[in-house]
Specification:
By secondary structure, this protein is an alpha/beta fold. 32% of the residues lie in helices and 16% in strands. Strands 1, 2, 3, 4, 5, 6, 17 and 18 form an 8-stranded mixed sheet that branches. A 5-stranded parallel sheet has the order 7-16-8-9-12, covered by helices on one side. Bound molecules: 3-acetylpyridine adenine dinucleotide (N01).
Length: 549
Protein backbone atom coordinates (compact mmCIF):
# COMPACT_ATOMS: atom_id res chain seq x y z
CA UNK A 1 0.00 0.00 0.00
CA UNK A 2 0.68 2.92 -0.03
CA UNK A 3 -1.02 4.93 2.45
CA UNK A 4 -1.28 8.49 1.19
CA UNK A 5 1.09 11.02 2.61
CA UNK A 6 0.12 14.39 4.03
CA UNK A 7 -3.51 13.40 4.49
CA UNK A 8 -5.16 12.05 7.60
CA UNK A 9 -6.27 8.47 7.16
CA UNK A 10 -8.83 6.85 9.45
CA UNK A 11 -8.58 3.10 9.76
CA UNK A 12 -9.45 0.30 12.19
CA UNK A 13 -5.94 -0.88 12.98
CA UNK A 14 -2.30 0.00 12.48
CA UNK A 15 0.33 -2.72 12.66
CA UNK A 16 4.05 -1.96 12.83
CA UNK A 17 6.44 -4.43 11.20
CA UNK A 18 6.15 -6.91 8.35
CA UNK A 19 7.98 -9.90 9.78
CA UNK A 20 6.28 -13.10 10.93
CA UNK A 21 4.17 -11.10 13.42
CA UNK A 22 3.03 -8.25 11.18
CA UNK A 23 2.19 -10.53 8.26
CA UNK A 24 -0.03 -12.85 10.24
CA UNK A 25 -1.64 -9.95 12.11
CA UNK A 26 -2.50 -8.21 8.86
CA UNK A 27 -3.93 -11.39 7.36
CA UNK A 28 -6.03 -12.02 10.47
CA UNK A 29 -7.37 -8.47 10.82
CA UNK A 30 -8.14 -8.07 7.16
CA UNK A 31 -9.14 -11.52 5.97
CA UNK A 32 -10.64 -13.06 9.11
CA UNK A 33 -12.09 -10.06 10.95
CA UNK A 34 -12.87 -7.94 7.90
CA UNK A 35 -11.23 -4.85 9.38
CA UNK A 36 -9.21 -2.18 7.64
CA UNK A 37 -5.55 -2.28 8.59
CA UNK A 38 -2.42 -0.37 7.66
CA UNK A 39 1.02 -1.84 8.11
CA UNK A 40 4.17 0.27 8.28
CA UNK A 41 7.57 -1.30 7.70
CA UNK A 42 10.99 0.36 7.68
CA UNK A 43 12.49 -2.08 5.18
CA UNK A 44 11.65 -2.20 1.49
CA UNK A 45 10.34 -5.75 1.77
CA UNK A 46 8.74 -8.17 4.21
CA UNK A 47 10.88 -10.38 6.46
CA UNK A 48 11.62 -8.47 9.68
CA UNK A 49 14.60 -10.00 11.40
CA UNK A 50 15.25 -12.18 8.34
CA UNK A 51 15.36 -9.12 6.13
CA UNK A 52 18.02 -7.34 8.21
CA UNK A 53 20.18 -10.13 9.63
CA UNK A 54 21.66 -11.38 6.38
CA UNK A 55 25.23 -11.80 7.59
CA UNK A 56 27.10 -14.89 6.33
CA UNK A 57 25.87 -18.03 8.10
CA UNK A 58 22.60 -16.58 9.43
CA UNK A 59 20.11 -19.41 9.84
CA UNK A 60 17.47 -20.64 12.25
CA UNK A 61 18.41 -23.12 14.93
CA UNK A 62 15.16 -24.87 15.55
CA UNK A 63 14.14 -27.22 12.74
CA UNK A 64 12.84 -25.35 9.68
CA UNK A 65 9.47 -27.10 9.76
CA UNK A 66 8.99 -25.92 13.34
CA UNK A 67 10.20 -22.45 12.41
CA UNK A 68 7.24 -21.69 10.16
CA UNK A 69 3.56 -20.78 10.23
CA UNK A 70 1.05 -23.46 11.11
CA UNK A 71 -2.14 -21.49 10.45
CA UNK A 72 -2.46 -22.32 6.76
CA UNK A 73 -2.49 -25.92 5.61
CA UNK A 74 -2.02 -24.68 2.05
CA UNK A 75 1.17 -22.81 3.00
CA UNK A 76 2.46 -25.82 4.93
CA UNK A 77 1.86 -28.14 2.02
CA UNK A 78 3.14 -25.88 -0.74
CA UNK A 79 6.40 -24.83 0.88
CA UNK A 80 9.30 -27.28 1.02
CA UNK A 81 12.37 -26.61 3.14
CA UNK A 82 15.68 -27.56 1.57
CA UNK A 83 17.69 -27.86 4.78
CA UNK A 84 17.10 -29.17 8.27
CA UNK A 85 17.87 -25.65 9.58
CA UNK A 86 17.06 -23.12 6.88
CA UNK A 87 19.38 -20.27 6.02
CA UNK A 88 18.37 -16.60 6.12
CA UNK A 89 17.77 -16.33 2.35
CA UNK A 90 15.42 -19.30 2.38
CA UNK A 91 13.45 -18.02 5.38
CA UNK A 92 13.16 -14.63 3.72
CA UNK A 93 11.93 -16.33 0.53
CA UNK A 94 9.40 -18.23 2.63
CA UNK A 95 8.04 -15.01 4.13
CA UNK A 96 7.84 -13.45 0.66
CA UNK A 97 5.98 -16.54 -0.51
CA UNK A 98 3.49 -16.21 2.37
CA UNK A 99 3.03 -12.49 1.71
CA UNK A 100 2.40 -13.10 -1.98
CA UNK A 101 0.13 -16.05 -1.42
CA UNK A 102 -2.05 -14.10 1.00
CA UNK A 103 -1.80 -10.97 -1.08
CA UNK A 104 -0.50 -8.92 1.82
CA UNK A 105 1.99 -6.56 0.23
CA UNK A 106 -0.58 -4.08 -1.05
CA UNK A 107 -1.56 -3.24 2.50
CA UNK A 108 2.00 -2.64 3.66
CA UNK A 109 3.68 0.74 3.38
CA UNK A 110 7.39 -0.04 3.04
CA UNK A 111 10.44 2.15 3.69
CA UNK A 112 8.46 4.01 6.32
CA UNK A 113 9.22 4.36 10.01
CA UNK A 114 6.67 5.18 12.68
CA UNK A 115 7.99 8.20 14.55
CA UNK A 116 5.20 8.97 16.99
CA UNK A 117 2.21 7.22 18.51
CA UNK A 118 -0.21 9.28 20.61
CA UNK A 119 -3.35 8.16 22.38
CA UNK A 120 -6.11 10.76 22.34
CA UNK A 121 -8.37 10.43 25.37
CA UNK A 122 -10.98 12.66 23.83
CA UNK A 123 -11.62 10.11 21.11
CA UNK A 124 -10.04 6.90 22.43
CA UNK A 125 -8.07 6.70 19.21
CA UNK A 126 -4.36 6.44 18.41
CA UNK A 127 -2.67 8.89 16.05
CA UNK A 128 0.32 7.37 14.31
CA UNK A 129 2.79 9.49 12.36
CA UNK A 130 5.59 8.35 10.09
CA UNK A 131 8.86 9.77 8.85
CA UNK A 132 7.31 10.06 5.40
CA UNK A 133 4.45 12.31 6.38
CA UNK A 134 1.65 9.84 7.03
CA UNK A 135 -0.89 10.47 9.77
CA UNK A 136 -3.18 7.60 10.58
CA UNK A 137 -5.92 7.55 13.20
CA UNK A 138 -6.94 4.12 14.42
CA UNK A 139 -8.73 2.29 17.21
CA UNK A 140 -6.35 -0.65 17.50
CA UNK A 141 -2.58 -0.30 17.48
CA UNK A 142 -0.46 -3.44 17.27
CA UNK A 143 3.27 -3.83 17.54
CA UNK A 144 4.97 -6.49 15.47
CA UNK A 145 8.35 -4.84 15.87
CA UNK A 146 10.09 -7.96 17.18
CA UNK A 147 12.25 -8.51 20.22
CA UNK A 148 15.70 -8.28 18.62
CA UNK A 149 15.43 -5.48 16.10
CA UNK A 150 17.18 -2.54 17.76
CA UNK A 151 20.92 -3.00 17.40
CA UNK A 152 23.16 -2.18 20.35
CA UNK A 153 26.43 -0.73 19.08
CA UNK A 154 28.82 0.28 21.88
CA UNK A 155 29.59 3.94 21.97
CA UNK A 156 33.39 3.62 22.06
CA UNK A 157 35.42 6.82 22.08
CA UNK A 158 36.44 7.62 18.51
CA UNK A 159 33.75 5.32 17.15
CA UNK A 160 33.24 7.29 13.95
CA UNK A 161 36.92 7.86 13.23
CA UNK A 162 37.61 4.45 11.65
CA UNK A 163 38.39 5.02 7.97
CA UNK A 164 37.81 1.46 6.78
CA UNK A 165 34.57 -0.42 6.07
CA UNK A 166 32.17 -0.77 9.01
CA UNK A 167 29.47 -3.44 9.22
CA UNK A 168 26.97 -4.70 11.79
CA UNK A 169 25.68 -8.27 11.65
CA UNK A 170 22.19 -6.91 12.40
CA UNK A 171 22.20 -4.61 9.33
CA UNK A 172 24.19 -6.52 6.73
CA UNK A 173 24.44 -5.07 3.19
CA UNK A 174 22.07 -6.69 0.73
CA UNK A 175 24.73 -7.12 -1.90
CA UNK A 176 26.90 -9.06 0.57
CA UNK A 177 30.49 -8.28 1.46
CA UNK A 178 33.58 -9.76 -0.15
CA UNK A 179 36.34 -10.02 2.45
CA UNK A 180 38.85 -11.64 0.09
CA UNK A 181 42.33 -10.26 0.71
CA UNK A 182 41.12 -8.05 3.57
CA UNK A 183 41.99 -7.86 7.22
CA UNK A 184 38.89 -7.94 9.39
CA UNK A 185 38.10 -7.30 13.06
CA UNK A 186 34.88 -8.49 14.64
CA UNK A 187 33.65 -7.42 18.09
CA UNK A 188 31.33 -9.84 19.87
CA UNK A 189 30.99 -13.59 20.10
CA UNK A 190 27.23 -14.13 20.51
CA UNK A 191 24.99 -16.32 18.37
CA UNK A 192 25.31 -14.03 15.31
CA UNK A 193 29.10 -13.81 15.39
CA UNK A 194 29.38 -17.55 16.03
CA UNK A 195 27.47 -18.19 12.80
CA UNK A 196 29.39 -15.55 10.82
CA UNK A 197 33.00 -16.06 12.00
CA UNK A 198 33.71 -19.42 10.28
CA UNK A 199 32.52 -18.11 6.90
CA UNK A 200 34.27 -14.74 7.17
CA UNK A 201 37.47 -16.56 8.14
CA UNK A 202 37.32 -18.60 4.94
CA UNK A 203 37.49 -15.37 2.91
CA UNK A 204 39.47 -12.86 4.90
CA UNK A 205 43.24 -12.48 4.74
CA UNK A 206 43.15 -12.23 8.50
CA UNK A 207 40.32 -12.17 11.03
CA UNK A 208 40.74 -10.92 14.60
CA UNK A 209 37.92 -11.84 16.97
CA UNK A 210 37.48 -9.59 20.01
CA UNK A 211 35.77 -11.65 22.69
CA UNK A 212 34.41 -10.38 26.00
CA UNK A 213 32.53 -13.53 27.05
CA UNK A 214 32.91 -16.97 25.50
CA UNK A 215 29.83 -19.06 24.74
CA UNK A 216 28.80 -22.67 25.28
CA UNK A 217 28.08 -23.09 21.57
CA UNK A 218 27.14 -26.60 20.45
CA UNK A 219 26.93 -28.09 16.96
CA UNK A 220 23.89 -27.36 14.86
CA UNK A 221 24.31 -30.58 12.86
CA UNK A 222 22.63 -29.10 9.82
CA UNK A 223 22.09 -31.04 6.61
CA UNK A 224 19.85 -31.24 3.59
CA UNK A 225 16.19 -32.05 4.06
CA UNK A 226 15.66 -35.28 2.13
CA UNK A 227 12.52 -35.51 0.01
CA UNK A 228 11.19 -38.48 1.95
CA UNK A 229 11.60 -36.63 5.23
CA UNK A 230 9.95 -33.50 3.85
CA UNK A 231 7.01 -35.60 2.66
CA UNK A 232 6.72 -37.38 5.99
CA UNK A 233 6.65 -34.02 7.77
CA UNK A 234 3.97 -32.69 5.44
CA UNK A 235 1.86 -35.77 6.06
CA UNK A 236 2.26 -35.34 9.78
CA UNK A 237 2.08 -31.60 10.35
CA UNK A 238 -0.95 -31.71 12.66
CA UNK A 239 0.62 -33.88 15.37
CA UNK A 240 4.04 -32.21 14.92
CA UNK A 241 2.56 -28.79 15.59
CA UNK A 242 0.62 -30.03 18.59
CA UNK A 243 3.77 -31.57 20.02
CA UNK A 244 5.64 -28.29 19.51
CA UNK A 245 2.88 -26.23 21.13
CA UNK A 246 2.86 -28.55 24.13
CA UNK A 247 6.63 -28.53 24.56
CA UNK A 248 8.06 -26.11 27.11
CA UNK A 249 10.25 -24.27 24.61
CA UNK A 250 8.18 -24.90 21.50
CA UNK A 251 10.16 -27.82 20.13
CA UNK A 252 9.84 -31.40 21.33
CA UNK A 253 12.84 -33.14 22.88
CA UNK A 254 11.74 -36.76 23.16
CA UNK A 255 15.04 -37.93 24.68
CA UNK A 256 14.90 -35.56 27.65
CA UNK A 257 15.61 -37.32 30.96
CA UNK A 258 14.38 -36.10 34.32
CA UNK A 259 17.55 -35.79 36.37
CA UNK A 260 21.22 -36.13 35.62
CA UNK A 261 21.61 -37.76 39.04
CA UNK A 262 19.45 -40.73 38.09
CA UNK A 263 22.14 -41.89 35.64
CA UNK A 264 25.61 -43.29 36.27
CA UNK A 265 28.52 -41.02 35.19
CA UNK A 266 29.03 -43.27 32.15
CA UNK A 267 25.36 -43.05 31.22
CA UNK A 268 25.47 -39.28 31.64
CA UNK A 269 28.45 -38.93 29.30
CA UNK A 270 26.77 -41.17 26.73
CA UNK A 271 23.48 -39.27 26.93
CA UNK A 272 25.21 -35.89 26.63
CA UNK A 273 27.17 -37.24 23.67
CA UNK A 274 23.91 -38.37 22.02
CA UNK A 275 22.35 -34.93 22.57
CA UNK A 276 25.50 -33.29 21.21
CA UNK A 277 25.18 -35.44 18.09
CA UNK A 278 21.44 -34.70 17.76
CA UNK A 279 22.41 -31.04 17.45
CA UNK A 280 20.44 -27.82 17.71
CA UNK A 281 19.14 -27.23 21.22
CA UNK A 282 19.11 -30.91 22.21
CA UNK A 283 21.85 -30.50 24.81
CA UNK A 284 20.54 -27.18 26.14
CA UNK A 285 16.83 -27.82 26.36
CA UNK A 286 16.52 -31.56 25.83
CA UNK A 287 19.20 -33.41 27.80
CA UNK A 288 18.22 -33.45 31.49
CA UNK A 289 15.37 -31.67 33.24
CA UNK A 290 17.57 -30.35 36.04
CA UNK A 291 20.37 -28.75 34.01
CA UNK A 292 18.86 -25.27 34.10
CA UNK A 293 17.66 -25.62 37.70
CA UNK A 294 20.43 -27.28 39.69
CA UNK A 295 23.97 -25.89 39.80
CA UNK A 296 25.55 -29.29 40.33
CA UNK A 297 23.72 -30.78 37.35
CA UNK A 298 24.62 -27.69 35.37
CA UNK A 299 28.32 -28.01 36.21
CA UNK A 300 28.45 -31.51 34.71
CA UNK A 301 27.12 -30.32 31.35
CA UNK A 302 29.29 -27.19 31.46
CA UNK A 303 32.41 -29.34 31.86
CA UNK A 304 31.23 -31.69 29.10
CA UNK A 305 31.01 -28.73 26.69
CA UNK A 306 34.34 -27.27 27.84
CA UNK A 307 36.00 -30.63 27.17
CA UNK A 308 34.53 -30.64 23.68
CA UNK A 309 35.97 -27.16 23.08
CA UNK A 310 39.40 -28.26 24.40
CA UNK A 311 39.33 -31.25 22.07
CA UNK A 312 38.54 -29.13 19.04
CA UNK A 313 40.92 -26.21 19.49
CA UNK A 314 44.61 -27.03 18.97
CA UNK A 315 46.20 -24.22 20.97
CA UNK A 316 45.50 -24.85 24.68
CA UNK A 317 45.65 -21.15 25.56
CA UNK A 318 43.11 -20.25 22.90
CA UNK A 319 40.96 -23.22 23.94
CA UNK A 320 40.88 -22.00 27.56
CA UNK A 321 39.91 -18.51 26.42
CA UNK A 322 37.02 -20.04 24.51
CA UNK A 323 35.82 -22.02 27.55
CA UNK A 324 33.01 -20.25 29.44
CA UNK A 325 33.07 -20.29 33.24
CA UNK A 326 29.51 -19.16 34.02
CA UNK A 327 26.45 -21.38 34.43
CA UNK A 328 25.83 -23.45 31.32
CA UNK A 329 22.81 -22.44 29.22
CA UNK A 330 22.00 -19.30 31.19
CA UNK A 331 22.94 -17.26 28.14
CA UNK A 332 21.01 -18.23 25.04
CA UNK A 333 22.93 -21.18 23.63
CA UNK A 334 24.34 -20.49 20.16
CA UNK A 335 24.48 -23.31 17.65
CA UNK A 336 27.58 -23.56 15.50
CA UNK A 337 29.14 -25.17 12.46
CA UNK A 338 32.97 -25.37 12.55
CA UNK A 339 33.13 -22.43 14.96
CA UNK A 340 35.79 -23.80 17.29
CA UNK A 341 37.88 -25.30 14.46
CA UNK A 342 38.05 -21.82 12.94
CA UNK A 343 40.52 -20.89 15.70
CA UNK A 344 42.91 -23.53 14.34
CA UNK A 345 43.36 -21.52 11.14
CA UNK A 346 46.53 -19.48 10.66
CA UNK A 347 44.54 -16.43 9.59
CA UNK A 348 42.37 -16.20 12.74
CA UNK A 349 43.30 -14.82 16.12
CA UNK A 350 41.30 -14.42 19.31
CA UNK A 351 41.74 -11.40 21.58
CA UNK A 352 40.36 -11.31 25.11
CA UNK A 353 38.69 -7.96 25.74
CA UNK A 354 37.41 -8.89 29.16
CA UNK A 355 40.76 -8.58 30.88
CA UNK A 356 41.79 -5.79 28.57
CA UNK A 357 38.85 -3.88 27.19
CA UNK A 358 38.56 -1.73 24.07
CA UNK A 359 39.73 1.78 24.92
CA UNK A 360 38.98 3.51 21.66
CA UNK A 361 38.40 3.11 17.97
CA UNK A 362 40.89 4.94 15.80
CA UNK A 363 41.33 5.64 12.09
CA UNK A 364 42.95 2.30 11.39
CA UNK A 365 41.34 -0.02 13.90
CA UNK A 366 41.16 -0.07 17.66
CA UNK A 367 43.21 0.17 20.83
CA UNK A 368 42.87 -1.82 24.00
CA UNK A 369 43.31 -0.58 27.55
CA UNK A 370 46.91 -1.84 27.65
CA UNK A 371 47.58 0.18 24.48
CA UNK A 372 47.80 -2.87 22.20
CA UNK A 373 46.67 -1.66 18.79
CA UNK A 374 44.96 -3.57 15.99
CA UNK A 375 44.65 -2.45 12.39
CA UNK A 376 42.22 -3.78 9.83
CA UNK A 377 40.41 -2.97 6.61
CA UNK A 378 36.96 -3.86 7.91
CA UNK A 379 35.38 -3.65 11.36
CA UNK A 380 32.27 -5.68 12.19
CA UNK A 381 30.05 -5.04 15.19
CA UNK A 382 28.21 -8.13 16.37
CA UNK A 383 27.37 -6.67 19.73
CA UNK A 384 23.73 -7.64 20.13
CA UNK A 385 20.48 -5.82 20.65
CA UNK A 386 18.57 -3.57 23.00
CA UNK A 387 16.14 -6.45 23.32
CA UNK A 388 12.38 -6.30 23.94
CA UNK A 389 11.98 -2.68 25.00
CA UNK A 390 14.35 -1.02 22.49
CA UNK A 391 12.08 -1.44 19.44
CA UNK A 392 8.94 -0.52 21.41
CA UNK A 393 10.44 2.69 22.74
CA UNK A 394 11.33 3.72 19.19
CA UNK A 395 7.61 3.98 18.46
CA UNK A 396 7.53 6.98 20.83
CA UNK A 397 4.33 5.85 22.47
CA UNK A 398 2.42 8.32 24.57
CA UNK A 399 -0.60 6.88 26.37
CA UNK A 400 -3.11 8.45 28.72
CA UNK A 401 -2.07 11.86 30.07
CA UNK A 402 0.74 11.94 27.53
CA UNK A 403 2.70 9.38 29.59
CA UNK A 404 5.61 7.96 27.59
CA UNK A 405 6.07 4.19 27.61
CA UNK A 406 9.75 4.77 28.50
CA UNK A 407 8.68 6.63 31.62
CA UNK A 408 6.00 4.18 32.62
CA UNK A 409 8.55 1.35 32.22
CA UNK A 410 11.42 3.17 33.93
CA UNK A 411 11.89 0.23 36.30
CA UNK A 412 11.38 -2.40 33.63
CA UNK A 413 8.40 -3.53 31.57
CA UNK A 414 4.94 -3.41 33.17
CA UNK A 415 2.47 -5.58 31.32
CA UNK A 416 -0.32 -8.04 31.74
CA UNK A 417 0.63 -11.28 29.96
CA UNK A 418 3.29 -9.38 28.00
CA UNK A 419 0.42 -8.29 25.76
CA UNK A 420 -0.74 -4.89 27.00
CA UNK A 421 0.25 -2.12 29.37
CA UNK A 422 -1.90 0.07 31.64
CA UNK A 423 -2.44 3.58 30.30
CA UNK A 424 -1.86 2.46 26.69
CA UNK A 425 -5.39 1.34 25.75
CA UNK A 426 -5.88 -0.86 22.68
CA UNK A 427 -2.11 -1.09 22.18
CA UNK A 428 -1.14 -4.74 21.78
CA UNK A 429 2.35 -6.22 21.71
CA UNK A 430 3.06 -9.40 19.76
CA UNK A 431 5.78 -11.35 21.61
CA UNK A 432 6.29 -8.43 23.97
CA UNK A 433 8.39 -8.47 27.13
CA UNK A 434 7.09 -10.85 29.84
CA UNK A 435 5.60 -13.24 27.27
CA UNK A 436 7.31 -16.54 26.26
CA UNK A 437 8.67 -14.91 23.06
CA UNK A 438 12.31 -15.84 22.45
CA UNK A 439 12.23 -18.89 24.70
CA UNK A 440 9.36 -20.44 22.82
CA UNK A 441 8.97 -21.26 19.14
CA UNK A 442 8.69 -17.75 17.65
CA UNK A 443 6.26 -18.44 14.76
CA UNK A 444 3.94 -20.51 16.97
CA UNK A 445 4.17 -17.96 19.79
CA UNK A 446 3.34 -15.21 17.31
CA UNK A 447 0.32 -17.16 16.06
CA UNK A 448 -0.97 -17.58 19.61
CA UNK A 449 -0.58 -13.84 20.29
CA UNK A 450 -2.15 -12.77 17.01
CA UNK A 451 -5.12 -15.06 17.59
CA UNK A 452 -5.61 -13.83 21.18
CA UNK A 453 -5.45 -10.21 20.01
CA UNK A 454 -7.86 -10.92 17.14
CA UNK A 455 -10.32 -12.66 19.47
CA UNK A 456 -10.11 -9.75 21.86
CA UNK A 457 -10.80 -7.26 19.08
CA UNK A 458 -13.70 -9.40 17.90
CA UNK A 459 -15.07 -9.45 21.45
CA UNK A 460 -14.77 -5.66 21.67
CA UNK A 461 -16.48 -5.12 18.34
CA UNK A 462 -19.28 -7.51 19.24
CA UNK A 463 -19.92 -5.85 22.61
CA UNK A 464 -19.48 -2.20 21.67
CA UNK A 465 -16.31 -1.91 23.76
CA UNK A 466 -14.17 1.08 22.94
CA UNK A 467 -11.04 0.43 24.99
CA UNK A 468 -9.22 -2.35 26.79
CA UNK A 469 -6.17 -2.04 29.01
CA UNK A 470 -4.77 -3.96 31.98
CA UNK A 471 -5.39 -2.91 35.55
CA UNK A 472 -2.23 -1.48 37.06
CA UNK A 473 -2.25 -3.94 39.97
CA UNK A 474 -2.36 -6.97 37.69
CA UNK A 475 0.90 -5.82 36.14
CA UNK A 476 2.65 -6.17 39.50
CA UNK A 477 1.19 -9.66 39.82
CA UNK A 478 2.28 -10.65 36.33
CA UNK A 479 5.81 -9.39 36.93
CA UNK A 480 5.91 -11.50 40.09
CA UNK A 481 4.75 -14.54 38.11
CA UNK A 482 7.38 -13.98 35.40
CA UNK A 483 10.21 -13.28 37.84
CA UNK A 484 9.10 -16.06 40.19
CA UNK A 485 9.35 -18.67 37.44
CA UNK A 486 12.65 -17.22 36.21
CA UNK A 487 14.08 -17.24 39.74
CA UNK A 488 13.26 -20.92 40.10
CA UNK A 489 15.76 -21.48 37.25
CA UNK A 490 19.44 -20.58 36.98
CA UNK A 491 18.90 -18.13 34.12
CA UNK A 492 18.76 -14.84 36.07
CA UNK A 493 22.11 -15.65 37.71
CA UNK A 494 23.96 -14.58 34.57
CA UNK A 495 24.03 -11.16 32.94
CA UNK A 496 22.21 -11.49 29.62
CA UNK A 497 19.93 -9.60 27.28
CA UNK A 498 17.05 -11.56 28.87
CA UNK A 499 17.46 -9.26 31.87
CA UNK A 500 18.53 -6.13 30.00
CA UNK A 501 21.97 -6.22 31.58
CA UNK A 502 23.75 -6.05 28.20
CA UNK A 503 22.67 -2.40 27.90
CA UNK A 504 24.34 0.10 30.22
CA UNK A 505 21.77 1.76 32.48
CA UNK A 506 18.85 -0.44 31.42
CA UNK A 507 16.69 -1.45 34.41
CA UNK A 508 17.19 -5.08 35.24
CA UNK A 509 14.23 -7.45 35.15
CA UNK A 510 13.69 -10.86 33.64
CA UNK A 511 11.77 -10.22 30.42
CA UNK A 512 10.75 -13.72 29.32
CA UNK A 513 7.93 -15.85 30.71
CA UNK A 514 9.59 -19.25 31.23
CA UNK A 515 6.50 -21.29 32.13
CA UNK A 516 6.23 -22.64 28.59
CA UNK A 517 3.94 -21.85 25.68
CA UNK A 518 1.17 -24.24 26.69
CA UNK A 519 0.84 -22.96 30.26
CA UNK A 520 0.99 -19.40 28.97
CA UNK A 521 -1.72 -20.03 26.37
CA UNK A 522 -3.90 -21.53 29.05
CA UNK A 523 -3.57 -18.38 31.19
CA UNK A 524 -4.34 -16.15 28.19
CA UNK A 525 -7.38 -18.24 27.26
CA UNK A 526 -8.69 -18.30 30.82
CA UNK A 527 -8.39 -14.52 31.00
CA UNK A 528 -10.43 -14.18 27.80
CA UNK A 529 -13.00 -16.75 28.93
CA UNK A 530 -13.44 -14.93 32.23
CA UNK A 531 -14.49 -11.80 30.36
CA UNK A 532 -10.96 -10.38 30.56
CA UNK A 533 -10.30 -10.51 34.28
CA UNK A 534 -7.43 -8.15 35.10
CA UNK A 535 -8.33 -5.86 32.21
CA UNK A 536 -10.55 -2.78 32.17
CA UNK A 537 -12.98 -2.72 29.24
CA UNK A 538 -14.87 0.48 28.67
CA UNK A 539 -17.48 1.84 26.33
CA UNK A 540 -17.14 5.25 24.75
CA UNK A 541 -18.81 8.15 26.52
CA UNK A 542 -21.27 10.24 24.55
CA UNK A 543 -18.73 13.03 24.22
CA UNK A 544 -16.03 10.64 22.99
CA UNK A 545 -18.45 9.26 20.44
CA UNK A 546 -19.29 12.76 19.31
CA UNK A 547 -15.62 13.79 18.93
CA UNK A 548 -14.64 10.50 17.26
CA UNK A 549 -17.36 10.84 14.66
O1 LIG B 1 23.96 -10.78 20.21
P1 LIG B 1 24.46 -11.22 21.67
P2 LIG B 1 23.79 -11.71 18.92
N1 LIG B 1 32.20 -4.58 24.28
O2 LIG B 1 23.90 -10.19 22.59
C1 LIG B 1 29.46 -8.62 22.93
C2 LIG B 1 19.26 -14.36 18.34
N2 LIG B 1 19.95 -14.98 17.23
O3 LIG B 1 23.38 -10.83 17.80
O4 LIG B 1 28.45 -11.55 26.28
C3 LIG B 1 32.57 -5.81 23.92
O5 LIG B 1 24.15 -12.63 21.94
C4 LIG B 1 28.78 -9.52 23.91
O6 LIG B 1 29.64 -9.80 24.97
P3 LIG B 1 29.01 -10.16 26.43
C5 LIG B 1 19.51 -15.20 19.57
O7 LIG B 1 18.37 -15.21 20.37
C6 LIG B 1 19.39 -16.09 16.71
O8 LIG B 1 24.94 -12.56 18.71
O9 LIG B 1 27.91 -9.16 26.67
N3 LIG B 1 31.74 -6.79 23.58
C7 LIG B 1 28.48 -10.73 23.02
O10 LIG B 1 29.61 -11.52 22.82
C8 LIG B 1 20.66 -14.48 20.19
O11 LIG B 1 20.87 -14.75 21.54
C9 LIG B 1 20.00 -16.75 15.71
O12 LIG B 1 30.14 -10.03 27.35
C10 LIG B 1 30.44 -6.50 23.61
C11 LIG B 1 28.12 -10.05 21.71
O13 LIG B 1 28.72 -8.78 21.71
C12 LIG B 1 20.30 -13.06 19.89
O14 LIG B 1 19.78 -13.09 18.58
C13 LIG B 1 21.21 -16.31 15.23
C14 LIG B 1 29.96 -5.22 23.97
C15 LIG B 1 26.63 -9.86 21.55
O15 LIG B 1 26.02 -11.10 21.55
C16 LIG B 1 21.42 -12.06 19.96
O16 LIG B 1 22.57 -12.62 19.31
C17 LIG B 1 21.77 -15.17 15.76
C18 LIG B 1 30.90 -4.26 24.32
N4 LIG B 1 30.54 -3.03 24.71
C19 LIG B 1 21.13 -14.51 16.76
N5 LIG B 1 28.62 -5.24 23.89
C20 LIG B 1 19.37 -17.97 15.19
O17 LIG B 1 20.00 -18.92 14.92
C21 LIG B 1 28.28 -6.47 23.50
N6 LIG B 1 29.38 -7.23 23.33
C22 LIG B 1 17.91 -18.01 15.04
Amino acid sequence: MTTQKNTIIHTDAVVVGAGFAGLYMLHTLRDKLGLKAEVFETADDVGGTWYWNRYPGARCDIASYHYSFSFSEEVQQEWTWSEKYAGQAEILDYLRFVANKLDLKDDITFETRVISSDFDERTNRWTIKTDRGHTVICKYYISGVGTLSTAAIPNYPGKDSFKGEVYATSRWPHEGVNFTGKTVGIIGTGASAIQAIPLIAEQARHLTVFQRTPNYATPLQNGPMEEAEANAIKANYGPLRNEARAALAGGPFPNMRESIFNDTPEQVQQHLEDCWNDGGFALWLGSYGDVLFDEKANAIVAEFVRNKIRARVNDPKTAELLCPDYLYGTKRQPCETNYFETYNRDNVSLVDIKSNSIRRINEQGLELGNEDGYKFDCLIYSTGFDAFTGPLFKLNLKGRNGLRLQDYWNEGPRTNLGLMSNGFPNFFMITGPQSPSVLFNMPLGIEQHVEWIANTIQHMEAHGIDTIEPEKAIEDEWREVVEGIANSTLLPKTNTWYTGSNIPGKPRSFMVYLGGGAAYKQVCDEVAQSGYAGFVLSKATASQEAVAS
